[in-house]
Amino acid sequence: ALFVQLARAIFQPSKVKHPCPVCGLNRHEPDAIHCKHCGEPLKIETEGGAAA
Question: What 3-state class would DSSP assign to 7?
């Protein structure tokens, strides 16, 4: 069980710093669409540019 937790911590994508315009929560998952705290839609810019 400890090995699984360690593997998740290593391979889990890091959070990005992007403040929510409503509640101010600053750390979100890289693929987040909505704020985890208040549900406000997020527009997190990615390195890949706009989705097609």
Answer: helix
